[in-house]
Write a structure and sequence with these properties.
With about 280 residues, this protein is of the alpha+beta class. It contains six helices and 14 strands.
Length: about 280
């Protein structure tokens, strides 16, 4: 495999790793493994994806040298609780990137999506990680039935290490553009250990309140103007928080509190998105 390696805590916990130079989709490989009955706790990593996918089936290709990583897990909890693994992944990614960029100077977020406590790295609901307000990393969860009838979850995570995609309708960036010469392999090793630390807090869903608290501490845009596109409408207001179910809570312009379960979020200057 290319030079991917597990962090020491991930290796000690028995996680496994499959590494590729280029692949269609790491999540597709993980889904296949789940369908074949794999017991989980296995990573699929690549330096390039040619058939990756994002939210709502959007195509997502990566430049060679970026990180594409998918983790197959078989959680011991109710399927509804498994959905909160997206927040676990976000907290883990935030921890890994913050560890790798400890000397980053604080800058104003491009789109008004500033992190808490002046942090340069911040989490954007529901599944992005931002740097200076631009997308640096994305997360996608997929469920897959196992042969025994149980449920497996594939957590796909990508990081723009050497380059960001072009032609997108929102700001994007990469570690290289931020001035960091860090390899995808190094990012993955940090992520694998951060995942172990974070999923142990989650504790099969019993610690979800703690995970959501950690997520809020790293959240972008709390208290900022927000526009959320959902199901043919745009909800505008102020991003108050995420609730105990992980829903985005918007204080609308008419003072109603609206709980959002899915949608595309735009902050600051981009919150003027049209219906």
């Amino acid at each position: 495999m290319p030079g991917f390696w597990l962090g020491p805590r991930a290796a000690t916990r028995g996680y496994r790793l499959h590494g590729y130079d280029s692949i269609g989709s790491t999540s597709t490989e993980a889904v296949r493994a789940a369908a074949a009955g794999d017991a989980g706790d296995v990573w699929f990593c690549a330096l390039q994806q040619t058939e990756g996918r994002g939210r709502r089936g959007r195509a997502w290709q990566t430049a060679h040298g970026n990180l594409a990583a998918s983790l197959l897990v078989v959680p011991d909890c109710d399927p509804s609780v498994s959905a909160t693994l997206g927040f676990v992944a976000g907290v883990a990614m935030n921890r890994a990137l913050t560890l790798l960029l400890p000397d980053a100077v604080v800058k104003q977020g491009i789109d008004g999506a500033d992190g808490q406590n002046g942090s340069r790295i911040a989490l954007k609901w529901p599944n992005d990680v931002l740097a200076d307000g631009a997308k640096l990393s994305g997360i996608l969860l997929e469920a897959q039935k196992r042969p025994d009838g149980g449920l497996a979850v594939v957590i796909g995570m990508g990081v723009n290490v050497v380059a960001a995609p072009e032609g997108l309708p929102y700001p994007v960036t990469s570690l290289r553009a931020l001035g960091y010469d860090i390899s995808a392999e190094t990012v993955f090793a940090a992520l694998s250990d951060a995942w172990v630390d974070t999923v142990e807090v989650w504790n099969a869903g019993r610690g979800i309140a703690d995970i959501l608290s950690l997520w809020r501490e790293a959240a972008a845009g709390i208290g900022a103007e927000v526009a959320v596109q959902r199901e043919g409408e745009v909800v505008r207001g102020v991003f108050e928080t995420i609730d105990e179910a992980g829903r985005l809570i918007v204080r609308a312009n008419d003072n109603r509190r609206i709980a959002i379960t899915a949608g595309d979020v735009h902050f600051g200057a981009t919150a003027s998105v049209r219906n």
